[in-house]
Design a protein that fits this description.
By secondary structure, the protein is of the alpha/beta class. It folds into 2 domains: 12-179, Rossmann fold; 184-379, Dehydroquinate synthase-like, alpha domain. The chain has 15 helices and 8 strands. It has helices spanning 23-26, 39-44, 48-56, 73-84, 97-107, 116-121, 184-202, 209-230, 234-253, 258-270, 274-304, 313-330, 347-355, 358-361, 370-379; strands spanning 12-15, 33-37, 61-64, 90-95, 131-136, 148-153, 158-163, 171-174. The protein is globular, with a radius of gyration of 20 Å. It starts with 11 loop residues before the first strand and ends with a helix.
Length: 381
């Protein structure tokens, strides 16, 4: 465990029933709003309560309703350029992780001094220039809480994280109405993404009392609610939204590990959705790590899994992993890379890409070699 650690969080977080109404208070001193969202979110009417408030207060807004899903850094730069041609002095991001991540980048790029590409190489260049409000419409990425923005780098066939505390949100709204009609498949894959965040941050080399607090909080909420949330239970959905946020906070103070590192090439080249990529790699990496994280999993068993009076840490650890695997199977998430057109001939390139994600590999309790990575990819073919 780290000897020194810190916690960085959004400045103000609103949650609970009708939390979306707090937009009225948040925009009190705003002159012009940019709303970032997906076309599907716009067409669903989810932004209507926001635009109604802005119209009521006579605050003009510019709508960016066509943000890309899992964008390249070039696509993110295009949004930055479009925003900089507007008169907006405040950003409201309504969507999943991609929308929120692009909004973060825009918030530090109202400048001619550096670009998204420059931040890939030197994230310390980033300086907040526009305030932000993040409103997630999925319960999984936790992007509203993190200082990370993930973009695809096509020339490397890899997703890369740009990390800067300057991108932490000024405001966050967690309102379960925003995920009421989320399709089951998306609720499942994003929920497993949140589960990966929780257990990776808990078992990271950078784990600390702050990350343990939030990763355990997330883990308990997810275990108790993910299946019911995917089946439409609104109380469970509300708990999953909170769990996702907790997982994001855990990322800021600890960090994900080998699961995310090995999942990035799956999204970067094969465009497998991020949550599904993590769901596919979660069990191979956890079982690989198990001998090194056994006491941690046994502790999780003691606190969260009332399976019975078992004294042996090895058995406790195995039961926790079996339980997580059962949840993934029950949610009908694809578990084979072959279903995405990946075969054994592609493994070398996946290994090369995964081993480049050193930012996350260094957090893994057990060193992952190229041979280890290859073995784990082959397990899910």
């Amino acid at each position: 465990m780290l000897e020194q650690y810190k916690l960085v969080m959004p400045k103000t977080v609103y949650g609970g029933q009708n939390a979306i109404n707090n937009v009225r208070e948040i925009v009190e001193d705003v002159k012009h709003v940019a709303i970032f969202t997906y076309k599907s979110v716009y067409e669903s009417g989810l932004i209507n309560p926001i635009t109604d408030i802005l119209s009521e207060k006579n605050i003009p807004f510019t709508l960016f309703e066509d943000l890309p899903v899992e964008p390249t850094y070039l696509q993110a730069q295009e949004v930055v350029d479009r925003f900089n041609s507007s008169e907006a002095d405040f950003i409201i991001a309504v969507g999943g992780g991609s929308v929120i991540d692009v909004a973060k980048l825009v918030s530090v790029l109202k400048t001619d001094r550096y670009t998204v590409k420059d931040l890939l190489e030197t994230p310390d260049l980033a300086k907040k220039t526009v305030r932000t409000l993040m409103i997630p419409t999925t319960a999984g990425t936790g992007a509203e809480a993190t200082p990370n923005a993930i973009v695809t780098v096509p020339e490397k066939s890899l997703k890369v994280g740009i990390v800067s505390n300057e991108m932490i949100a000024d405001y966050v709204i967690l309102d379960a109405e925003m995920i009421r009609n989320l399709p089951r498949s998306i609720a499942a894959s994003t929920g497993i993404d949140a589960l990966a965040h929780a257990i990776e941050c808990y078992t990271s080399k950078k784990a600390n009392p702050f990350s343990d607090l939030y990763s355990f909080g997330a883990l308990e909420l997810i275990i108790k609610n993910i299946e019911a949330a995917c089946d439409g239970d609104m109380n469970a959905k509300s708990n999953m939204l909170l769990a996702s946020f907790y997982g994001g906070i855990a990322i800021t103070t600890s960090g994900t590990t080998g699961v995310h590192a090995l999942s990035y090439p799956l999204g970067g080249k094969y465009h497998i959705p991020h949550g599904i990529s993590n769901a596919i790699m979660l069990m191979p990496v956890l079982r690989f790590n198990e001998p090194y994280i056994r006491p941690l999993l046994a502790n999780a068993y003691n606190r969260l899994w009332p399976f019975g009076n078992i004294e042996n840490d090895e058995e406790k650890s195995a039961l926790v992993l079996d339980y997580i695997e059962r949840i993934i199977k029950n949610l009908d998430i694809p578990q084979s890379l072959k279903s995405f057109g990946i075969n054994e001939d592609d493994v070398d390139e996946l290994v090369k890409g995964g081993m480049e994600v050193k930012r996350l590999l260094v957090n893994n309790m057990r060193e992952i070699t190229e041979a280890d990575a290859r073995s784990m990819y082959l397990q899910v073919l």
